[in-house]
Amino acid sequence: MYMTIGRIFDLSVSKYPNKEALVEPEKNIRWTYKQWDEQINKTAHALLEEGV
Hints:
By secondary structure, the protein is an alpha+beta fold. The protein has two helices and two strands. The chain has a domain at 16-49. A hairpin with a 4-residue loop joins strand 1 and strand 2 (29-32). It is flat.
């Protein structure tokens, strides 16, 4: 079965919503899969509103 990176990410969000997914110690960023997904969606909606 072929899966895109987006689909794999969505499955990870569903399976591990509260697990850390993104850690950037130098910027003190620690996001769970759910938080990262929310940021992705906010960015996507902002780009769509700008017509990108």
